[in-house]
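so my prof wants the structure for this chain in the tokens format not the other one, which i didnt know existed until like an hour ago. anyway here's the sequence
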Amino acid sequence: QVQLADSGGGSVQAGGSLRLSCVASADIYSRFYLGWFRQAPGKEREGVATMTRYGTAYYGDSVKGRFTIARDSAKRTLYLQMNSLEPEDTAMYYCAAADDYRRFLRPPYDYAGRGQGTQVTVSS
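here's what i got, hopefully its the right format
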């Protein structure tokens, strides 16, 4: 069972910021690549960000320059700092675990497991 607990979503106005957090179990943190994807109602999943074991970060085109992924290995926690939020960023955000970091970069965005999701709503 993949154990991921994501949190930090909320409602903000356009231009605002939020920081999402994801705490992983020790086994998951060491075995898998972690990242974020999002899904809005009626829309396809979209990869948001991920980080390789060496610390290289990758982002979806729509969030580059606005979102930053980071991690704290001592806390087994992954973060997503979201700045300059836009209404188009409104979605449920999920922390996920994958056997390959490239699963966050291209469809079908399938994962070994994910958190329960945290809602981000951006109003104009």
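also thought this was worth mentioning. The CA atoms of residues 47 and 106 lie 7 Å apart.
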